[in-house]
Specification:
With 817 residues, the chain is of the alpha+beta class. It contains 25 helices and 31 strands. Strands 8, 9, 10, 11, 12, 13 and 16 form a 7-stranded mixed beta sheet that branches. A 4-stranded parallel beta sheet has the order 2-1-24-25, covered by helices on one side. Strands 4-3-5-17 form a 4-stranded antiparallel beta sheet. Strand 24, helix 16 and strand 25 (578-581) form a beta-alpha-beta unit. Helix 2 (48-66) crosses helix 18 and helix 22 (708-718) packs antiparallel against helix 23 (723-732). It is globular, with a radius of gyration of 34 Å. The chain binds one RNA strand of 87 nucleotides through helix 6, strand 9, strand 13, helix 10 and strand 27.
RNA sequence: GCCGCGGUGGCGGAAUUGGUAGACGCGCUGGACUUAAAAUCCAGUUGUGGCGACACAGUGCGGGUUCGAUUCCCGCCCGCGGCACCA
């Protein structure tokens, strides 16, 4: 086995000293910004998933440099956040320390893989130089009315005494202790992301919306679908119902429906327990005790209980109150039920049990009338029960007989005419809750003054530094409140004593703009100089895990659109091309986890087989984007391949052979195309096939069939995948320049000399012979050739050829009778 | 339930617009070299039948279109990922 330890250390040092991968200054070459999703620097170091992702972008970067692009290929660290804080709570070590150590480990590990990052363009989100601008972004949002404070329900773990981030309360259970999360009303900061769902124009600048902007992007379809679903646009109608109480007072309540065509089947109305009208109606209810009991019950429920689909729906009627259907003027009962969500639409729905499954279940339980008003267009054959599809209207007054589609249009017209409602679009997407009652994050730059109210921290006072001298153990309030030096300040406007906002920002805020900072990471005055942004942005290739399908990518797009709107950027989508890597499973087919003991450590592999072998193996395992299991024996295959490559360069005569040169050209074509399409597994396969061919030819000829110049071209193809060995062998060929900086070989079709091909002869679609034939063979000669074959002629005995299909250079199919 | 992705040898996987299914690699079997082992090299490796040339079957299942289907269409089954009372 070749001495990979020595070779890899040697070239890593040479690259570093010669600054081979330094980001180039502006010149007339086209640019390519190739970006990895930056990692969270955890104490356990790099795992094989990082290696997969970083190798993939490294291959593309090295390839791009060879192809004459100016390349920006940076890496940084997403250092704020709960894992570091929780680790700190557990061990008592300050997050600043653990992060510093972890970053050192990550950097060393990444360098030992030979990844061609330019570390001078790095960022660390927990450093004041960085979060100064995270705070600046907050102020930009605030100034433009895009950051606001309101009371909101947040996830609260009563055991840990803290608010949880949404991703920490998945399934309604606290990630840390397993306690069921409850909802608490607290004042929270929000970003108005919902303002950017649809296209808009501002001071002559067109900004595509979060929805339509997706259309032009080269992203995986699944990711686009995930974002569209999360935004959840649904168009329907708002309808006003009049509520009548026993003392003849009237209220109006708005409902949202996508199925206005079913309104003649509406047999009751439902309000969410949190609906503002509930309080007003409480006094009117004949059964106010029962209603109060129900409200109390609901408030005690955990999020988990409330969203459990397997549980029976619950609710309570408001007796003495009824609603009037604006279409048929029928009086219907009004319910409060927690299957209606307060924060979607208007928090009230018209219930049509015959045509909605949820309403049906509720109606059955409370024995409410079920009135069918839609029948399938195909007529007749429909059973009792719920029919949720569109169809023809039944029993619906003047609308009877219309299709659902037409009925919806006419009914909306009626609502608009009579001012009882109209068209309405709703979204599932809510505004982004960005405040966290946690220590390890960027402080929100707001000061509260008794006289002046909420006052933004003046720009000259940024960054608002995160104090290091606080007890960061969670108490239910932000730990920053414990630091009096931090908390007690004077008002920037009037100078009176005031207090600082003690919440920090969601780490997703920090990661929503880091890709802009890479263009100009040292800038002290602005987040990035406009000229630098123009030089590098938008990102040409963004690569990372599919777990960021929704949140991170949506937030980063939102930030970009805000910046575009206010003139800081000249583009409105940050990531033009996006690809995900598939998860690497453990050898047992399970997800890698410490508890399962199936975690593969990259360090042990670089020590055992070398970085080049590890890189090559991970790229050879299978399609990049697919989930695939680790196979510890698999790496020996690529190690063997590298050994075979190395032995070609042992002393031995070498001279160009026409056939080998031709094959090399075909390999150049194949490998280049595969890299462009991120099909690294087949690119490596092509390199292996070529090396196998060289050995075969040498066995026949007694010498290697390629001279040095062409062997150099082969090394250039190998370099993105196995850069250390490739550089070493390049040097052995006598070159003193860096292979990484030499141009990518151009495919020269005129050197491809292929004289024969294998003609597949089929009879009635079944393969009967594979014959060697000269290129350019015409159909007639192909038939002659085929007939001369004993197997073919046997099959043609006593039958008549009624049809021939000839695909030149490929196949001849004879159809017989 | 909805959305998205997938199902090919013992294993990971390969197959331009439909055109030789199983490339490449792992593993396995046999052989060469060696006192022996490792390493390396050579040969074989979808199944069934046959010494063999060959033949038949075969890309989750059932149909269809076609000279020809892993690829296209219809109807299912299974697995994975995401969302999940969004009216």
């Amino acid at each position: 086995m070749y001495n990979f330890q020595k070779i890899e250390a040697k070239w890593q040092e040479k690259w570093r000293q010669a600054e081979v991968f330094k980001t180039p200054k502006t010149d007339n070459r086209p640019k390519r910004y190739i970006l990895d999703m930056f990692p969270y620097p955890s104490g356990s170091g790099l795992h094989v998933g990082h290696v997969e992702s970083y190798t993939a972008t490294d291959i593309y970067s090295r390839f791009s440099r060879g192809c004459g692009y100016r390349v920006l290929h940076p890496q940084g660290f997403d250092a704020f956040g709960l894992p570091a804080e929780n680790y700190a709570i557990k061990t008592g070590t300050h997050p600043t320390e653990t992060i510093k150590t972890a970053i050192a480990i990550f950097t060393k590990q990444i360098d030992s893989l030979g990844i061609s990052y330019d570390w001078s363009h790095s960022v660390v989100t927990s450093e004041p130089d960085y979060y100064k601008f995270t705070q600046w972004f907050f102020l930009l949002m605030y100034k433009n009315g895009l950051a606001y404070k309101k009371k909101a329900k947040v996830n609260w773990c009563s055991n840990c005494q803290t608010v949880l981030a949404r991703e920490q309360a998945e399934g309604g259970i606290c990630e840390r202790c397993g306690t069921a999360v409850i909802q608490k009303d607290l004042e929270q900061w929000f970003f108005k992301i919902t303002d950017f769902i649809e296209d808009q124009e501002y001071e002559g600048r067109k900004i595509s919306g979060l929805l339509s902007g997706l259309d032009s992007l080269d992203w995986p379809e699944s990711t686009k679908a995930g974002q569209r679903h999360w935004i959840g646009r649904s168009s329907g109608a708002k309808v006003n119902f009049t509520l009548l109480t026993s003392d003849q007072s009237e209220f109006s309540v708005e409902v949202f429906t996508t199925r206005l065509d079913t309104i003649f089947g509406c047999t009751y109305l439902v309000l969410a327990p949190e609906h503002p009208l509930v309080e007003d109606l409480l006094g009117q209810a004949e059964n106010s005790t029962a209603v109060k009991d129900y409200l109390k019950q609901v408030s005690k429920k955990t999020e988990l209980e409330r969203t459990d689909l397997n549980k029976d729906k619950t609710g309570v009627p408001i007796r003495g109150v009824s609603a009037i259907n604006p279409f048929n003027h029928q009086k219907i009962p009004v319910f409060i039920a927690d299957y209606v969500l307060a924060n979607y639409g208007s928090g009230a729905v018209m219930a049509v049990p015959a045509h909605d499954e949820r309403d049906y279940a509720f109606a059955q339980k409370y024995q409410l009338p079920i009135k069918t008003v839609i029948q399938p267009e195909t007529g007749l054959d429909f059973d009792e029960g719920v029919f949720t599809a569109d169809g023809l209207l039944l029993d619906s007054g003047e609308y009877t007989g219309l299709t659902s589609l037409l009925a919806r249009q006419r009914m909306v017209d009626f609502l608009e005419r009579t001012r009882q409602g109209g068209e309405q679009v709703n979204y599932r997407l809510r505004d982004w809750l960005v405040s966290r009652q946690r220590y390890w994050g960027a402080p929100i730059p707001i000061i509260y003054c008794d006289d002046c109210g909420a006052v933004p921290v003046p720009k000259k006072d940024l960054p608002v530094l995160l104090p290091e001298d606080v007890d960061f153990r969670p108490t239910g309030e932000s730990p920053l409140k414990n630091s009096s030096s931090f908390h007690q300040v004077t008002c920037p406007l009037c100078g009176a004593s005031a207090r600082r906002e003690s919440d920090t920002m969601d780490t997703f805020v920090c990661s929503s703009w880091y890709f802009l900072r890479y263009a100009d990471p040292q800038n002290k005055t602005v987040f990035a100089d406009p000229s630098k942004l123009k030089e590098w942005l938008p990102v040409d290739l963004y690569f990372g895990g599919a777990e960021h399908t929704v949140l991170h990518l949506l937030y980063a797009r939102f930030f970009t659109k805000v910046l575009r709107k206010y003139g800081y950027l000249d583009f409105d989508e940050p990531f033009l091309r996006l690809r995900h890597q598939g998860i690497i499973l453990g050898e047992d087919g399970n997800k890698m986890s410490k508890s399962k003991g199936n975690v593969v450590n990259p360090d042990s592999l670089t020590n055992l087989s070398g970085a080049d072998a590890l890189r090559l193996y991970e790229m050879f395992m299978g399609p990049l984007e697919e989930m695939k299991p680790w196979n510890s024996q698999g790496i020996s295959g690529v190690s063997r391949f590298l050994d075979r490559v190395e032995r070609i360069f042992d002393e031995s005569p070498r001279s160009d052979d026409e056939e080998a040169v031709s094959f090399l050209q075909q390999t150049i074509k194949k490998v280049s195309a595969d890299i462009n399409n991120f099909k690294f597994n087949t690119a490596i396969s092509a390199l292996m096939i070529f090396v196998n061919y060289l050995y075969e030819a040498k066995n026949k000829k007694g010498e290697w069939p390629l001279a040095n110049e062409n062997l150099g071209k082969f090394l250039r193809l190998l370099e993105p995948f196995a850069p250390h060995l490739a550089e070493e062998l390049w040097e052995r060929l006598g070159y003193s320049s860096f292979l990484a900086l030499s141009p990518w070989p151009e495919y020269q079709p005129e050197l491809v000399k292929v004289e024969t091909f294998i003609l597949a002869v089929q009879i009635n679609g079944k393969l009967r012979a594979s014959l060697q034939a000269p290129i350019g063979l015409d159909q007639e000669s192909a038939l002659v050739l085929a007939k001369a074959d004993p197997v073919v002629s046997k099959w043609l005995e006593g039958v008549e050829i009624v049809r021939q299909i000839y695909i030149p250079e490929k196949l001849l199919n004879l159809v017989t009778r």
